[in-house]
C-alpha cells in the first residue's frame, strides 16, 4: 500500500544545538495542525544533538532523522527538500521554537488567499521559555511581487523578516527545483527567498506572531565587535550582490528597490571597514558602491529625493550617523 503523502513537510537542520533542539522539536510536535511530516537533518553534530533527535523521533512517528557529514546549513536544507513529500514546505531553525497554531494558521491562509507563500511575524527572544503574547484577530494582507519587493527592500522597518525562510509556508510547486547554493552562508536564506519570490504572483502576510527567534551568544547574528561585524556584513553583502544576476527578470521599479538596498549596504559596509581598520574591504565596498550608484542613478523609478539622499550619505560621511539614528528610530517602531 502506498503511504499517504503529508500535507506539509517541515524541515529542521541541526548542528550542535543539543541544549535547544528538544524544545524546538517539542514545539513542532505540539502543532494543532497534524497532517505533517518533520524531516530533521543532523549535519554532522558533535555535541549529541543527533542522538537527542533520534531519541525524540523514536517516540514521535511524524519525525524522521537523517544523519550526514557536516556540509553546512544550505546542504542540510537541500537534503530535507530532497526528501520532502508535502504539498507545502516549512522550515524551522533548531534553536528556535514555534507557536502551537503556526502551521494551522499558515496552512489555512495560504489556501484561503490562494498565495504562493505566506509569512507570519517573528519575535526575537533572549531565552527559550519566552511566552507568545496574545494575537489580534487573524488578517492576511495579500500582495503582488512588486509590492512584496517594496516591503522587503524599500522599507527599513519591515516586520515580516521577508528575507528568511523559517517564518513562512511555501507551496511545493513554487519552490520547484530551486535549492540552496552550497556553501553560501550567511545570506543563504535571502538568496533562496529571492529566487523563489521571482516565481510568485500572490504572497500573504499574516499579522500573527507565531515564531520565536532565539538570540544566542556566540552566534554570528549576535556578534558585536567591529571585526566580526565587518566579516558578517561583507559576506552577506556579496550574497546579496548576486541579486543583480536576476535583474532581467525584475521590473524597473523592483530593480530600484533592490539597488536602493545595495547602495545603502555599501555605505554601511564602508563604515564598518573603517571602524575595523580594514583598508582592503573598504576599497572593495567602495568599488561596489560605484557600480550600484551608477545603476541607481540611471533608474527612472527611484525618486530624485531618494537618489539625492543616498548620494549625500555616500559621499559626505558625516551624514551617516544621522542616517543610522533615523534607521534605529524606524526599527523601534516595528
Précis, in short:
45% of the residues lie in helices and 17% in strands. With 334 residues, it is α/β, with parallel strands linked by helices. It folds into two domains: 207 residues, Alpha-Beta Complex (Spore Coat Polysaccharide Biosynthesis Protein SpsA, Chain A), CATH 3.90.550; 110 residues, no CATH class.
Looking at CATH, the homologous superfamily of the largest domain is: Spore Coat Polysaccharide Biosynthesis Protein SpsA, Chain A
CATH topology of the largest domain: Spore Coat Polysaccharide Biosynthesis Protein SpsA, Chain A
Low-pLDDT residue intervals, each spanning 5 or more residues:
218-224, 330-334
Helical stretch tally: 12
Task: Name the beta content range.
Answer: 15-25%
Distance between the termini: 51 Å
Q: Give the CATH level 1 class of the largest domain.
A: Alpha Beta
Describe the structure.
The chain has 334 residues and is of the alpha/beta class. It is 45% helix and 17% strand. Strands 1, 2, 3, 4, 5, 6, 7, 8 and 9 form a nine-stranded mixed β-sheet that branches. Helix 5 (145-154) packs parallel to helix 9 (252-276), helix 9 runs antiparallel to helix 10 and helix 9 (252-276) runs parallel beside helix 11 (304-315). The termini are far apart. Mean pLDDT is 87; it is low at 218-224 and 330-334.
What are its keywords?
334 residues, 2 domains, alpha/beta, nine-stranded mixed beta sheet, 9 strands, Spore Coat Polysaccharide Biosynthesis Protein SpsA, Chain A
